[in-house]
Amino acid sequence: MGLFKTILNTVPRPWLIKASYLAKPLLNLWYKGATFIDPINQKSYRKFLPYGYQNQRENVLAPGTLSLERHRLMWLYLTQNTHFFNQSLKVLHVAPEQCFYKKFRKQNNLDYTTTDLESPLADVKADICNLPFKDNTYDVVFCNHVLEHIPNDAKAMSELHRVLKPGGWGIFQVPQNTELETTYEDHTITQPEDRKKHFGQYDHVRIYGLDYFTRLKNAGFTVQQFKVSENFTPKQIQQYSLMANEILPVCFKK
Question: Which of 106, 220, 245, 253 has the fewest Cβ atoms surrounding its Cβ within 10 A?
Answer without folding.
Answer: 106
